[in-house]
Amino acid sequence: MAPRIQSRSVSNTLLPYLTSTSSSSSTTSVPSLFSTPSQCLSRQFSATAAPQTKLRRQMFEWLSTEGAALKHHIPGETNYLTRLKQRGGSDGPDSRRPFPNNQNFISEPILSEELRNEVYNRVVTKGQSVRVVSVDLGIDMQRIAAVVRLVELEQRQRKQGKPLALPYARAIHEMVPTTPLAEQGERQQFHEPINDLPAHPLTGTQIFYPVPESRSFTRVEAGRVFSAAPAMEHSEAGAISHPSDLAEKIIENPNATGWVGKGDNRRQILQPADVRIPHPHLVSLERDRITNPKERLAVADAHAKRLERQDAAEKRRRERAAARREQMQTIVSPEESRFDYRIKDTVYTAETTGKDGRAPWAIGRRYGVPHRDRTRGEVKIPTRVDA
Amino acid sequence: MRNRASNTLSKGKIRQSWSKYNLYNLQRFRSPPTTNRTFFQQKWSAKAVSRAYHGEQVREGQWKRMFNHRIRSVIPMNASDLAADDGSLASAGRGSGLETKDGDATYQNRRIPYTHMAFAPLERRLDVAIFRALFASSARQARQFVIHGAVTVNGQKMRHPSYLLNPGDLFQVEPDRVMFATGTPKDKAERREGRLAQRKPEGEEESKEAEEEKVEEESKETPKEDTKETLKALMQQAKSIMSSGKDTLPAKRKQELRGFQKAVRRVLSRSASSTVLTDSLEAQFSELTLLLNAKRAEKKPEKKDEKKDKRRSDDDAVASKGDEDVEVSSKLSEAFEQAAQGNDVDASELDDEEFDTLKRALVQMRDNPIDNTKPYATPWRPRDYMSAFTFIPRYLEVNQNICAAVYLRHPVARPGSAEVPTPFGESVATPAYGWYLRRRW
């Protein structure tokens, strides 16, 4: 952009005569620094201060010299400020950092259009499970669910003829690093780590827990120590050959983790990493591979069976939960009515209605308690939007 | 709320914005000095600097209530490591694993940058998430989009910029707003044309009709002209559109595009069904591709020129990549000219690459048309200095075609990287985190 042009024109012809002493100094010193000769001529008799500050001048100078490299994007490459600062070797991990001062933030690749469509095809057309697709392509399961949702939405909008932002999408995919879909016969590049273990707040504490050196202290026992649960019985501990044995049991029955504490302090015992990662079956597969290194087919077969078993267990559990929910409430949908009525039995306890039975969150109208949206300081911004 | 988020050069604050002023400020930013300053002063200035970037639209008290000293982090686990060891190796000896002879640790010890995540709760806000998904050029603009009702969350209109997204929420912005926010602004002439187009829709139609009549007249004047000639001309124009680089002025480029559009019209008017002209661009495109396919079916399997370079410019943007590509495209066009000059060349003998180029030009014309009624410069181009700010954090999954994104999960820190985009280094992040911790110590 050109430097700012002075908008006010000097109409008073007397002005240069009146303020000749002060203006002469400013005209000689300031414009010579920054502006073209034509501009100097245009404000020869001006008494107003120069519209161009030193900082603005420096900025436009930088934008026209060094900063000019950032003006347009380079297709297929990132074009961040860090590249300018480095001078020289632009390739490498540093070209992925948008902020020169922050070493810990990198611009992560996004899914390319083809990979996105491939995910959709596998899940919707081929009917593969999200878990399998996630392991095959190295994409997080939540992301796969989101991709399916978004592609479906896109298809619907295309069908409806709604406007799309195609040139914008193309430009963004040129600017940001992307994970491409592998060619036929090539190995797919993994998009992101899929087995992330969330750090549990209980593990933040430092605990001094003396253990005899002769005893093997495993992840299962460490989890019990962190959640202040008593040590396991010897028979119980002996039954666990590896922490990943617990995973299958807990997928079958999530309440099998065991509980500690009473009342409000009641909490689940912290489980080992093998159970808490998103893909616990991968650990079992690796263990099978270690124990039977030569029987590839048998290992793969056992793995497929295990996955099937776990999927079935999960499905059963979901169905059970749905049935229980259905049992709890009756849905009445009268004919010629726009509404369904969901009728539940009221549970009259201290948790549901408060100690005096008039808690603000209790169901129904209570004498002397104003309606919730009339109370002072109530935030009416929704906290959730149901899909 | 008054907008205090100006990009002043004198203060040099970094904002959530793509403006060039902000880019310059980002470039010259130095972390506040720590020598001869008390801890209080260090924390104060770190807080001031980082709050100017993170949620300056949020009141301080509001932010203090959102702040949480506990920071989400994640450790990527390797399944084979877990399978090989049940944990007893890590706790062997005196409790921290047996020492290896070569002295390197069994587990990688990259530090988790916890304090870079101090402002993670703000990334949940709808306006910030829209900015992070690259749907707006600043957090303030994103906020305006929300307030003006251009944003839906899970299909419902949401007018609260402070809505905190839950994992799995899908938000969508109107594509036109996104194109406006991220595209080059109109220049004076384009603005004027847009105004005129909006003011007199009837006049516009008349002029269109007149143009069409003119086209028809032209076609009447030269009824015996071969379709092959026009197709050739069409090809030529498509070629020039696809090959024009970054250096060409937008105005020039626009002229070329207009010419191409006219040529397409002429071809279509010669074809049997003249109703296509009045239809949408979509119909025109399908008709033209049909026409081309018919020509291709007639074509004999005869390979004409071997010398042609195999490489082709994928797009106009790619073509502008460097001098090599420009040379290639110029070679291509030269070869094409030679082919066009020879009288014996039939239009149906166009080879695969040329058809491809023509098709791509058509697709571009359809996807990115000239339309002065739009609030951005057409054909759409990314705004200047945009690429310096484009990155999409991992906690969002974005579909740019429909301008929708899903908030997958809350941002997390992992060994060596933090997911909250912040322009500040350790020397600012840690004291700022410390400032908000102060009542908890």
TrEMBL record, chain A:
Biased composition range(s): Basic and acidic residues: 309-327
GO biological process, one term: mitochondrial translation
Source organism, top-level taxon: Eukaryota
A Pfam family this chain is assigned to: Bot1p
InterPro entries: Ribosomal_mS45 (IPR021036)
Region (Disordered) location: 84-105, 309-328
GO molecular function: structural constituent of ribosome
Protein name, UniProt field: Ribosomal protein S35, mitochondrial
Gene Ontology terms: cellular component: mitochondrial small ribosomal subunit
Source organism of the structure: Penicillium bovifimosum
TrEMBL record, chain B:
Ranges of residues in domain RNA-binding S4: 124-184
This protein's record includes keyword Ribosomal protein: yes
Record's keyword terms, sorted: Mitochondrion, Ribonucleoprotein, Ribosomal protein, RNA-binding, rRNA-binding
GO biological process, one term: ribosomal small subunit biogenesis
GO CC field: mitochondrial small ribosomal subunit
Gene3D superfamilies noted in UniProt: RNA-binding S4 domain
InterPro entries (UniProt xref): Ribosomal_uS4, Ribosomal_uS4_CS, S4_RNA-bd, S4_RNA-bd_sf
Ranges of compositional bias, category Basic and acidic residues: 185-202, 297-315
Ranges of Acidic residues composition bias in the record: 203-219
Cross-referenced Pfam families: S4
Subcellular location as annotated: Mitochondrion
Superkingdom, natural source: Eukaryota
Region (Disordered): 182-228, 297-330
GO MF annotation list: rRNA binding; structural constituent of ribosome
Transmembrane segments: none
Family: Belongs to the universal ribosomal protein uS4 family.
Role this protein plays: Component of the mitochondrial ribosome (mitoribosome), a dedicated translation machinery responsible for the synthesis of mitochondrial genome-encoded proteins, including at least some of the essential transmembrane subunits of the mitochondrial respiratory chain. The mitoribosomes are attached to the mitochondrial inner membrane and translation products are cotranslationally integrated into the membrane.
Name recorded for this polypeptide: Small ribosomal subunit protein uS4m
